[in-house]
């Protein structure tokens, strides 16, 4: 596949006023660009060093700060600054400590086109991924008037983490997404880190009835909490002039506000990650906040920093329980990033966890992080819908995609279930994911002895499919199935009933050497059952396995050189039965 970016350089002309006199301050180099096209294109070297630059627009007091890997040795791709509003005017690019004769400076161009190869090899078919650039956490997920909003941590100026904005997409069905312009950009208070969005039904903040209000971390010299509101269904936001609404109390890791309306006490509740605890704040109007309580000392995993908390109710047999999701990095059960959870009670002030064998993990795969639930889901629906970032801070910046980095998990419903010993939170694809189904192939039940290659079943699926089946272990102790390609690259799903665990071996899954701890065998504890219901969702660069409706879940990314087109069942000892096997192609 052609991987060279194809940019049509409609205009190569840059007006650089007073060439040698461009250096304004010591160490600064300024380009004054007379705008005659839609975009200024900046050449980037993927692994080059970072330069700080500022963009001064004729109509804005505040300059835009960008950290850019401006090409010095080679041009790997281009990023754009949208300047169509300034035709005939001058935009000033001010670079710090850059050689004005460098490759990057010489190649800055204007163009009416910004082109790149969208359908690159590892572009997911049905998982949300950014159009181009870097993405991490889902942010501000909120439902309003038929639209599910997905905001996300976004760098429009490169495919590595930097310049945090909120990107934006909407969907009416949770599976097909429309990209929208980036609504929140860094400002003098800092970058826009993770946060949430609510619909202010009763106009408590005074920005208007049903205003969409984003609550996010301003990450500047210190981390503080800010708000912004939208009265056009999330298309544009106005930052509140009283920001920050919560100043920093001297805690470096002080971020990721997740806000919900607590009807019983008639106030907004914010869960905030505060180093290795969650601090709860209350507010009548989203502007003035009071500290309520702190949770987390001495409970759960503390092997890393706590991030992206989410507190919300779930019901079990008609009774309300409160659950608290907390992402932690590093310190996940299989290395790096993961999401732990607590189940307990919340009285409008404090969260008290039930006595359970913590840490409990939502997903034992290596690639489900920073996930939280949608707010404002209509009561008639009533689901708690979750989505996570399908990557891991261990290697997220190095995964081998080209013009974009990372995707989200499929949206999943969270529920409370009993595992025979205690309550757990299950997570399972929302029913809307079934809309992706194309042709179904049903395979007769099989008794697996030794190894059985299921002929041709995956050949026409292009590596994008859903497998459902019932596993009946009988007397088998170590057994499972495997998806592989003609190069012998494979992902193996191994049920090890001796160890009471389900393992996903991606050691030979394809490209793995981009990071030393990517090739690995994450595993999840497995309860001992007579049968296991398996759902496996495979996309070009990921697989999500759900056992028994989401009691055990492993989400892992992989990068095969060609799609997996062979399904093999195997046992390492006694025979087992694969029943009700059905495979759908997914679109
Ligand atoms: C989690 C996180 C958040 C932070 C954001 C920055 O992945 O570290 O805590 O707000 O990413 O992009």
Q: Can you count the beta strands? A: 42
* Tally of individual domains: 3
Number of helices: 1
What name does CATH use for the topology of the largest domain? Tachylectin-2, Chain A
Beta-strand percent range = over 45%
| Coarse shape | globular
Structural class: mainly beta
**In CATH, what is the homologous superfamily of the largest domain?**
Glycosyl hydrolase domain, family 43
Rounded average pLDDT: 95
Q: Radius of gyration in whole Å, from Cα?
A: 25 Å
Describe this structure in words.
By secondary structure, the protein is an all-beta fold. The chain folds into three domains: 14-111, Jelly Rolls, CATH 2.60.120; 133-429, Tachylectin-2, Chain A, CATH 2.115.10.20; 437-586, Sandwich (Jelly Rolls). It has one helix and 42 strands. Strands 30, 31, 33, 38, 39, 40 and 42 form a seven-stranded antiparallel sheet that branches. The protein has a six-stranded antiparallel sheet with strand order 32-41-34-35-36-37, with no helix packed on it. A five-stranded mixed sheet has the order 11-10-9-8-27, with no helix packed on it. The two termini are 21 Å apart. The structure holds beta-D-fructofuranose. Residues 136-137, 153, 164, 193-194, 217, 255-256, 307-308, 370 line the site of beta-D-fructofuranose (FRU).
